[in-house]
Amino acid sequence: MQSTTQPIDRETLLIEANKIIRDHEDFIHGMKATGVEQKNGVLVFRGEYFLDEQGLPTPKSTAVFNMFKHLAHVLSEKYHLQD
User: Fold this and answer.
1) Which of 15, 26, 57, 59 has the smallest number of CB atoms closer than 10 Å to its CB?
2) What is the CATH number of the domain that holds 58?
3) Contact, 44 vs 33, CB < 8 A?
4) Cβ–Cβ contacts within 10 Å for residue 63, how many?
5) Which InterPro entries does the record associate with it (predicted)?
6) Which residues span the domain enclosing 53?
7) What is residue 83's predicted lDDT score, i.e. its pLDDT?
């Protein structure tokens, strides 16, 4: 996968990912990617998951999971992390 993707540093990738999040129709206030790593050619994004007081998922958690999955799909086709 890396032979067909462009190298990108984490900071630049997070800036692009957060722009995609803000511009997406399913954006929820507070939704933000704060970290990213690469596993087997797939970019895996991290951030706030809006858990409740007991640490259980809320309806917002599903939206965040789906957004991070969207980012992984879209951005893994274009980039790989340069270390």
Assistant:
1) 59
2) 3.30.300.360
3) no
4) 17
5) DUF2498 (IPR019633), YciN_sf (IPR038191)
6) 2-81
7) 74
DSSP of the chain? -GGGSEEE-HHHHHHHHHHHHHHSTT--TT--EEEEEEETTEEEEEE-----TTS---HHHHHHHHHHHHHHHHHHTTEEE--
Structure tokens at 14: 């997070």
Calpha distance 78→8 (Å, rounded): 10
C-alpha–C-alpha distance, residues 24 and 9, integer Å: 23
pLDDT tens sequence across 32-69: 999 999 999 999 999 999 999 999 999 999 999 999 99
